[in-house]
């Protein structure tokens, strides 16, 4: 745990007292009283803090408990199901699976099954024990020279720079051991992504890191050079992310180390800016044309985009552009507003963006309603950490899932909420060498692979229990939730699910009539 500078003097008092006691026990009173008196006088005379001037020495207790509060709350005060963003139960499940421990639970559920916290998947009287042991989803089958057979759970976007070198290494080695993919995040491909050869999904954000010109624009030649490497399996454009949708970012020059500069193709020590929006396109049609260009430049690998859904009419505008141009991305990843990040403005995190469930349903309806779903695979990302969470996403239209924080837990993250400070106690989200040292790559890589494997095993158990052959057979009819205190029903009684072609054939019969009417393929703005 990091000790704030304001505790240095009290700590010095303790050290001096202990030293005096060892020298001569009779001097302990003097050893305590003199430093305490000096500290009291210091607080009384300083002019920065009103509390310390009015309540010398005693006011320091406030800051002590303020710093200890997250730890006391997590380990002493909160129940197993109260913590956020992830509860102790949720984290414990990941830890157990990563370590190979027993992840079973005695005495039945602790949820109130008659409240809205309980929702369930309908099992079958005739479970299908003959279901395949595992599944993969082919992405880019219709449009790519090099389609990718993706695992159903992959590592979501987390950049080198946000995560430590050891964390990136462990994640990628775990992906190589388990046969699944590792999304680079918008910080591009570092030497640590390359070291163990795990499959990569290269994410391109608005800063075009790893394939940018000196002034920050997209460089197609530099992109092609890296994207055609065999380790890169897919290319993902980041339109927005759940934790800070519509917001750019900046890595201060002081944090741009030689290794980060090498990966991002920026200058050492210069501010590394990610604009809020892309400069490569400004309309839905231009976005799709860029997707097609990336597919070609990569040598025929799947290309798509990730977004946190914001304005429904923008999704409809992209769908109209697909119909008009006959260009479709190979995949779309829907990120929920509950997604995480190392640092984001709290007001965006708490108030902007559509949660995964609503965003996934909207994307599913847009693609199914326009007869496009068969061409495009849909990924789901946003607090996915269990087989049950994956099953829910499949029931809403996902073809695979990505997870970020769950894989951080598998590395040993304890949710200390220090990601943005560089003071991560477990070496996951820090660039401080001695903090990284605690994260042993070989050991954590095995945990990463084991967590992914055990989570997919749990998904299969659910599929078997429901009597299905694959998770893609799950639909909204299989998922139930409380409608009110006296009634529960399948999800299609809560949300509207469109039939194939309904959006283009009869948009006025859908809940998206207005969004469809004001959407146009040549602009992201509403057109009335």
Kindly list the characteristics that best describe this protein.
8-stranded parallel sheet, 39% helix, globular, 2 domains, TIM Barrel, alpha/beta, 528 residues, 19 helices
Short account of what is shown:
Belongs to the glutamate synthase family. The protein has helices at residues 8-23, 28-45, 50-54, 60-77, 88-99, 165-178, 191-194, 220-227, 258-264, 284-297, 312-325, 346-351, 356-369, 387-395, 405-411, 433-436, 441-465, 502-505, 513-518; strands at residues 119-121, 137-139, 148-150, 153-155, 181-183, 199-204, 232-238, 249-251, 272-274, 303-307, 331-335, 377-381, 400-403, 479-484, 487-490.
Integer count of domains: 2
Q: State the secondary-structure class.
A: alpha/beta
CATH architecture of the largest domain: Alpha-Beta Barrel
> How many DSSP H or I helices?
19
Q: Extract low-pLDDT stretches.
A: none
Backbone shape: globular
- In spatial order, strands of the major sheet run 4-13-12-11-10-7-6-5
Computed CA radius of gyration, to the nearest angstrom? 26 Å
CATH class of the largest domain: Alpha Beta
CATH topology of the largest domain: TIM Barrel
Taking the alpha carbons of the first and last residues, their distance comes to 56 Å
Kindly report the name of the CATH homologous superfamily of the largest domain.
Aldolase class I
Quaternary assembly: single chain
Question: In total, how many beta strands?
Answer: 15
Q: Which percent range fits the helix content?
A: 25-40%
């Amino acid at each position: 745990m990091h000790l704030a500078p304001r505790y240095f003097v009290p700590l010095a008092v303790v050290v001096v007292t202990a030293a005096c006691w060892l020298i001569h026990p009779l001097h302990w009173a003097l050893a305590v009283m003199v430093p305490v008196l000096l500290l009291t006088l210091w607080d009384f005379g300083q002019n920065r803090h009103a509390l310390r001037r009015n309540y010398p020495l005693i006011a320091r207790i406030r800051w002590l408990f303020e710093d200890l509060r997250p730890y006391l709350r997590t380990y002493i005060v909160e129940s197993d199901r109260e913590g956020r963003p992830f509860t102790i139960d949720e984290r414990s499940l990941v830890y157990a699976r990563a370590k190979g421990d027993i992840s079973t639970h005695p005495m039945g559920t602790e949820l109130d099954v008659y409240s809205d916290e309980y929702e369930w998947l309908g099992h079958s009287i005739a479970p299908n024990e003959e279901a395949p042991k595992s599944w993969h989803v082919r992405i880019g089958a219709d449009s790519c020279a090099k389609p990718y057979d993706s695992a159903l759970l992959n590592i979501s976007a987390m950049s080198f720079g946000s995560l430590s070198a050891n964390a990136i290494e462990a994640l990628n080695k775990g992906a190589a051991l388990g046969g699944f993919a590792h999304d680079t995040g918008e910080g591009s491909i570092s030497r640590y992504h390359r070291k163990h050869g795990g499959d990569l999904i290269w994410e391109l954000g608005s800063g075009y890191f790893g394939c940018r010109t000196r002034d920050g624009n997209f460089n197609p030649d530099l992109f092609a050079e890296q994207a055609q490497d065999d380790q890169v399996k897919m290319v993902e454009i980041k339109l927005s992310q759940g934790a800070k949708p519509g917001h750019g970012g900046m890595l201060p020059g002081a944090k741009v180390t030689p290794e980060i500069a090498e990966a991002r193709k920026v200058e050492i020590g210069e501010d590394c800016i990610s604009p809020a929006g892309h400069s490569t396109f400004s309309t839905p049609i231009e976005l799709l044309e860029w997707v097609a260009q990336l597919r070609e430049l990569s040598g025929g690998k799947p290309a798509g985009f990730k977004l946190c859904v914001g304005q429904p009419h923008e999704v409809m505008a992209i769908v109209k552009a697909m119909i008009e141009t006959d260009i479709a991305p190979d995949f779309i990843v829907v990120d929920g507003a509950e997604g995480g990040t190392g640092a984001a403005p709290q007001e965006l995190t708490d108030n902007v963006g559509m949660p995964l469930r609503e965003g996934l349903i909207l994307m599913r309806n847009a693609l199914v309603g326009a007869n496009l779903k068969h061409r495009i695979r849909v990924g789901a990302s946003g607090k996915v950490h269990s087989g049950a969470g994956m099953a829910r996403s499949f029931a809403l239209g996902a073809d695979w899932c990505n997870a970020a924080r769950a894989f951080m837990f598998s590395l040993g993250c304890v949710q200390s909420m220090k990601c943005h400070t560089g003071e991560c106690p477990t070496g996951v989200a820090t660039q401080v060498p001695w903090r990284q040292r605690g994260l042993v790559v070989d050991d954590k890589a095995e945990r990463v692979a084991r967590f992914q494997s055990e989570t997919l095993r749990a998904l299969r158990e659910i599929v078997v229990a429901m009597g299905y052959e694959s998770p893609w057979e799950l639909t909204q009819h299989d998922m139930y939730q409380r409608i009110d205190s006296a009634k529960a029903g399948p999800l299609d009684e809560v949300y509207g699910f469109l039939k194939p072609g309904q959006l283009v054939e009869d948009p006025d019969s859908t809940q998206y009539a207005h969004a469809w009417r004001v959407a146009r393929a040549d602009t992201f703005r509403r057109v009335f």
